[in-house]
Sequence to fold (78 residues):
Amino acid sequence: MHLTIATVTENLFDGEAVSVTVPGTAGEMTVLTHHEPIITTLKKGTIIVRELNDIEPREFPIESGVLEVRSDGATILL
Fold:
């Protein structure tokens, strides 16, 4: 899935991801390709992005944010 993680001033990640795990306000959740559309708020924690062919996942510590999952990908605004 195409994933974008961005702040007002910069893109932190913009590429293809196998999965993304986020600290949702209702609990941790993992989004995979073809996930149902959803919009949810995020709390302080760490976003974990797994890319195809990468052994180590990428981690992004956050204070808060919003996750939007669509049929064509996902966007996280911090």
User: Anything to note?
Assistant: The chain has a mean pLDDT of 96. Strands lie at 2-6, 11-16, 19-24, 27-32, 38-42, 45-50, 58-62, 65-70, 73-77. The CA atoms of residues 53 and 64 lie 29 Å apart.
